[in-house]
Amino acid sequence: MNESVARVFDRILRGLGLKTLNAQFLLSYALMFGLAACASVALYLSMSISPETINVAGAQRMLSQKMAREALQLRLGAGDPKALAATIAQYERSAADLDAGNAERNVSRMGAPEIAAQRQKVAQIWGRYRAMLDQVAQPASQVDLRGFSQYSTELLGELNNLVSLMSARADSVQHTQMWIAFGCLLAILVLVVLGRQFGLAPLMRQLRGLEVALTEVGAANFTHALAAGHADNEIGRIVAGYERMRQDVSGLLANVKRSAAETDKDVAEALAQARRSARDGLPSGGRSALSGGVGAGTGTACMGWKGGIGTSSRVLPDGTTVAVVLLTNFGAPHQLALRGRVVAEELDAPAWWADHHPEPAGSCIGVVLTDAPLDAATAARVAARVGLGLARVGSVAHHGSGEIFCCLATGLRAPRDQAPDRAAWPGSRLDDLFEATVDATESAVWDSLLSATTTTGRRGLTVPALPQDRLAALFSGS
Asked: What is the 3-state secondary structure of 83-142?
């Protein structure tokens, strides 16, 4: 039942163009805000008629009787003309405030037709009554006291009717506005309940399903498929991303399982190749059979061309050896340089680079090995020179490229319980080692480039090997 009602609400909202959860929640917030504002306005309007207004209207009744008493006292010679004048002025000021309102006295103008008509009726009676007051206040004047009494009684009665109308109107306005405010608050409560029952509850069920699936992924189970109700909202996009991840990882796991059967064979071939290289020396061409697109270098690109593993070594005049092993995965093709010559200007950029426009990023790992006697500080200084060798080839260490350089020095090796038999080299002896490291690093980069072959990788992306014939032609005349 709840699912059916939730689907009905969802179809209505989507029919209004509110397809995303964000838009649907914004609508509910806007409705609740509007209802809350309406309730606030209603509560404010319920107090729009000040109680002081009714008090002023009621005071007019007492003032009408007080004027009659003061006029009769003057006729008998016992009153004060100023007191009567002050009472008349107070009555007329109150009548003016009721007609137009008076913010200073907190008197509201009540413009309902029946109240306006009653005020007009009171004003007409007051006009006649006011004239008789002046006559009654004169002892020598001839006046119809019986008529005066009738006008006083009539004025008092109409003032009573005015007060009753105003009180009824104030109560009616207050009750109406209170009911409006109550209705708005009730509507907010209904929206909250409907949103919780038919909006949030289905959403939480979908999120719990996603939580279960991700928990199974954490346990290396990629068989739990998810289906989203709609592909164009936030949950749908999350589920679609999960499904792509699940399928990709499932494919990778399948590839791993297929290649696992060949692992022993690959390891045996690599060991046999390494033993042959150690026994027989380097193959023709002077580069190691383990250079280029092998091992971790299989999927790398260097300066836009196929990179990989590269090695090179140098021997210092004193017999000290320094070797560099690189995993080249950095740079852009337009910066490629060889021995100070920017050969990129004379080689066309590889097609895959022009087609995909990748960011010049990657990670180059460089390891320096030497038998020089170096301590940790000097070894770190030697490792830092790898970056200078990369710069010779055109690297500028782009923001997205994460280089890792280290140096292994065996010159101070000694048994665990003995001190080295010689001291670490001071900084003044490092210049030749620095130069050899930079030079070997540059050569190791070119070893990786010249040893690599064109490789097709994931999703059919092909990275070509550096065209050696073109490169040779560039330098044949130099």
From this structure: HHHHHHHHHHHHHHHHHHCECCCCECCCCCHHHHHHHHHHHHHHHHHHHHHHHHCCCCCC
With residue 315 as reference, give the H or E element that holds it: strand 309-315
CA–CA dist 97, 189 (Å, integer) = 42
d(C-alpha 195, C-alpha 463), whole Å: 54
Concatenated DSSP letters of 32-45: HHHHHHHHHHHHHH
Neighbours of 51 (CB within 10 A): 12
Whole-number Å distance between alpha carbons of 215 and 16:
36
CA nearest to 187, candidates 34, 293, 13, 79 = 34
Q: Tell me: the pLDDT tens digits for 109-122?
A: 887 889 889 889 98
For residue 63, the one-letter residue type is L
Contact between 122 and 158 under an 8 Å Cβ cutoff? The reply is: yes
How far is Cα 432 from Cα 322, in angstroms, rounded to an integer? 10
Estimate the crossing angle of helix 51-75 against helix 113-136, to 10 degrees. 20
Residue 56, number of CB atoms within 10 A of its CB: 22
> Tokens 């260097």 label which residue?
302
SS3 label, residue 323 = strand
User: pTM of the entire structure?
Assistant: 0.43
**Upper half-sphere CA count for residue 309 (Cβ side, 13 Å):** 13
d(CA 81, CA 303): 112
- Measure the CA–CA gap between 75 and 198, rounded to whole angstroms: 82
Q: What is the CA radius of gyration of the chain?
A: 49
Nearest to 472 by CA among 442, 440, 450, 441: 450
Quick one: which of 66, 88, 82 has its CA closest to 152? 66
Give 404's DSSP letter: E
Chain centroid to Cα 82, Å, comes to: 76
CA angle 61–64–68, rounded 5-degree value: 145
Tokens of residue 314, six digits: 């140098």
Quote the tokens at residue 317: 């005049």
Round to whole Å and give the CA distance between 405 and 402: 10
Tokens of 225: 């498929």
Q: How far apart are the first and last CA of the chain?
A: 85
> Which whole number is the average pLDDT over 288-296?
79
H or E segment to which residue 66 belongs: helix 51-75
| Digit-coded pLDDT (tens) for 417-462 | 888 888 999 999 999 999 999 999 999 999 999 999 999 988 888 8
Report the distance separating Cα 194 and Cα 19, nearest Å: 18
